[in-house]
Design brief:
Blueprint lengths: L1 E4 L3 H12 L9 E4 L6 H7 L3 E4 L7 H10 L5 E5 L4 E2 L4 H6 L7 E9 L6 H9 L8 E3 L11 H8 L5 E5 H6 L9 H11 L3 E11 L6 H19 L10 H19 L4 H42 L1
Parallel strand pairs: 1-2, 2-3, 6-9
Antiparallel strand pairs: 4-8, 5-9, 6-8, 7-9
Helix pairs in contact: 6-9, 9-11, 10-11
Length: 308
Amino acid sequence: MVIPVLDGGRVFAEQMRALAGQKRTPLEIVVVDSGSRDESVDTALEYGARVIEIRKEDFDHGATRNLGIEHTHGEFVVLLTQDATPTSPEFIDSIVAPFEDPNVAGVYGRQLPRPDCDVVTARNLNGWLTGREDARRMRLPEDGLERLAPMERYQLCVFDSVCCALRRRCWEEIPYERTSFGEDVTWGREALSRGWTLAYEPTASVVHSHRRSILYEFERTRECHALLHRLFGVSTLPRARNIPAAWSGTLANDVSHAWRHAPRGVERWRQVARAAGLGLTSPIAQHLGMRDAMREQRDSLGARDTRS
């Protein structure tokens, strides 16, 4: 098992306790710590994990996970983020069960919102592919990805290293790419393109959600949509003139949902304000992310033309 950590705090300790209670033992746990200033390293050592320490500036979503996997020995490697807490003692058994099919390269599990999650985020998590109740197998169509619509390509290749497991032989063939974002879906796309199968196993579930700032969500959405355009051609808001309509629809949907379902009092107003802020900023971020990817593609073609 590999867990990248930076100042994991109370939630990381909660995760380690859940792993200590797994029915499948012993577990080989490798923690890659990138400069924690809290008690995370001590917590990892307390629960018998092997700790590899790197500098904060050396962290990379793909390369750091590769480093951790290199220090494990099992046929299958489970990966978690530091804030993904398994919900049952059978978590490890559940997430490796689909590997009985020798064509399965990787498995990802279900993510459930934390009790303090705002109601709009909880709804979105439960409605996304990582929140489904039914198991799924993903294989490349006979005519390849290109015949699919962009969003269909993306949904076929979804893989999530918040909670996943890899077959070591496949990882040796396809290590994670060095990247600041999206190492998991990039890996999933490559695994499918080489003829492997991906699996979603909902009985392997973790509790995982965030309460992040609107600015953070803006930057993350922008980076996400740049990646989705590069990999799959996804363009949710191809023209700036579409943004006002997206504002209207998102605000009406999310703000009303927050008002109806959030706890009464100050918390309701907090969640309504957050839904309104994200409703205004997310469409802009989606459009800018697509433009970022298109600009990169133009610059790359221009540089290629210059060299030729």
